[in-house]
């Protein structure tokens, strides 16, 4: 731009066939193509950068998924008749508990309310409400911030002793009442009573009681209808 308001147009913004000096009292009109071109180039660069970030994030996400432990859940979970009476919240939370990275190999979980709520994108109040509902439905047994998923053995096999370091701390710290109910369900649903876990002191009474040794069992648990195998829950509260 010269002192008298004259603009020298570059090849980018000069109209076809125009040569020389272009005079105008409104220079922004004739600079618009230049600004548009700059915005277009900048927009393309930003779009490419965003696409690159998305692709990288997707690649990282896939690696996280591929490198994570597998979770076992039977397809009958979705067709169990009791699902008809459950809300979407109930089903989502139960599915999460069965597959959560925070689960233990034996179906007993100490709930970290903040982390669990963050994982499923709920607030803690909503999480507590649905946990209470699942307890009322006997999908879980809860005690002192711990839960036992009553259908756990419907979907999972007894773990080998290679996971003993993850299991023993749970058996040492979970509430005694919850462990008693867990031991009852685990004993009655297992066909192999020789596995290492049944050597734990929780199962002493089962190993020594002839009425329990055959797997028929006695006590305050009963089979629930509507699941792949049903699960167990206390009949008295």
Give a structural overview.
Strands 3-5-4 form a 3-stranded antiparallel sheet, sandwiched between helices. The chain has 2 domains: 6-66; 75-234, Orthogonal Bundle (Arc Repressor Mutant, subunit A), CATH 1.10.10.10. The protein has helices at residues 27-66, 88-99, 113-119, 124-136, 152-155, 164-173, 176-189, 204-208, 210-213; strands spanning 6-7, 22-23, 108-110, 140-143, 146-149, 221-223, 232-234. The protein is mainly alpha-helical and 237 residues long. The protein contains 9 helices and 7 strands, in the order E-E-H-H-E-H-H-E-E-H-H-H-H-H-E-E.
How is the topology of this model organized?
Elements: E1 6-7, E2 22-23, H1 27-66, H2 88-99, E3 108-110, H3 113-119, H4 124-136, E4 140-143, E5 146-149, H5 152-155, H6 164-173, H7 176-189, H8 204-208, H9 210-213, E6 221-223, E7 232-234
Antiparallel strand pairs: 1-2, 3-5, 4-5, 6-7
Helix pairs in contact: 2-4, 3-4
Give the integer mean of the pLDDT values: 78
- Round the Cα radius of gyration to an integer and report it: 32 Å
Quaternary: single chain
The number of distinct helices, counting runs of at least 4 residues, comes to 9
CATH superfamily of the largest domain: Winged helix-like DNA-binding domain superfamily/Winged helix DNA-binding domain
Taking the sheet with the most strands, its summary is: 3 strands, antiparallel
Pick out the low-confidence regions: 6-13, 216-237
CATH A-level architecture of the largest domain: Orthogonal Bundle
Total number of strands: 7
Reading off the top of the CATH hierarchy, the class of the largest domain is best stated as Mainly Alpha
How would the global form be characterised?
A: elongated
Distance between the termini: 88 Å
CATH topology assignment of the largest domain: Arc Repressor Mutant, subunit A
Order of helices and strands: EEHHEHHEEHHHHHEE
The helicity comes to 40-55%
Count of structural domains? 2
Give the strand content.
5-15%
